[in-house]
Fold this sequence. Notes:
Blueprint: H1 16-31, E1 35-41, H2 53-57, E2 61-67, H3 74-86, E3 91-94, H4 102-122, E4 130-136, H5 142-150, E5 169-173, E6 176-179, E7 183-184, H6 192-201, H7 211-229, H8 237-242, H9 251-262, H10 267-279
Parallel strand pairs: 1-2, 1-4, 2-3, 4-6, 4-7
Antiparallel strand pairs: 5-6
Helix pairs in contact: 6-7, 7-9, 7-10, 9-10
This protein binds guanosine-5'-triphosphate (GTP).
Amino acid sequence: MSLTQNYKLNLIQWYPGHIAKAEKQLKEQLKRVDVVLEVRDARIPLATHHPQIDEWVGDKARILVLNRLDMIPPQVRSLWVDWFKHQGQVAYFTNAKQGQGVVAIAKAAQAAGVKLNQRRRDRGMLPRPVRAVVIGFPNVGKSALINRLLGKRVVESAARPGVTRSLRWVRISEHLELLDAPGVIPLKMGNQEAAIKLAICDDIGQASYDHQLVASAFIDLLNQLQETAGNLLPPSPVYTRYQVDPVMYTGESYLQALAEHRYQGDQERTARHLLTDFRKGLLGTIPLELPPK
Ligand SMILES: Nc1nc2c(ncn2[C@@H]2O[C@H](COP(=O)(O)OP(=O)(O)OP(=O)(O)O)[C@@H](O)[C@H]2O)c(=O)[nH]1
């Protein structure tokens, strides 16, 4: 059963005007670089892929970064590495908060520059540092990655879509320069299933949505995963935390039951707690997507 049969997210922030502006800003950034570091959320590598990215990036070098490696189990990480390899892509996993995997990203970006400079030399031009930009959906860890690459804090948080900023280069090494502002990929509204997963993971920016609906969808998704790939999840993650087992409930009825059990029937509070606990990793390492068979 697909998630979207039961849930229709009513997102009320990304108006078409916002999306168009964000798209324009992103394309402006992409135009100036040689290498694109595309950051996705390791919990949902497919939902954090925008279908038009391939077209926007064109034939520029692209480095695929799956961030939040600490939030999925190591076996799932290996499955993704193999799956992407099968698709002809190298997936680099990072924990931008702690710094794991970041050196490999800088090396991969610099390696792309070697080819660039070979082409420049062939045309009689002087070599120059390779120029890169970090792009991704909101909250996937773009700023954390930029700060880690630089070894210091230069980005507070990503530029909000629609807010035009001047583009500045910051130097990472003599071979690599980075745009100091990450490129924010606008939401693709057409894909409801992806939108729900983005909302569960809080990768949806300032869009507002119904927390109870999103928390219910989260429980249904967990139950589905438990059924199909229980061995890849922590044992009874939700039961362990709340002592109410979701397996016998639909998402919606679970929210009611949990609200009665812990929050004096307050389903809104229950939903918010459930989502916050998941996002903080308090339910354990839970991947919300697995590589398609
Ligand atoms: N657990 C964990 N948290 C991370 C990781 N990377 C980033 N974070 C946290 O996730 C939150 C969002 O990170 P940011 O770097 O601000 O994400 P962003 O993509 O720049 O977000 P926007 O500014 O909303 O576009 C912050 O609280 C980070 O500390 C990671 O690998 N693991």
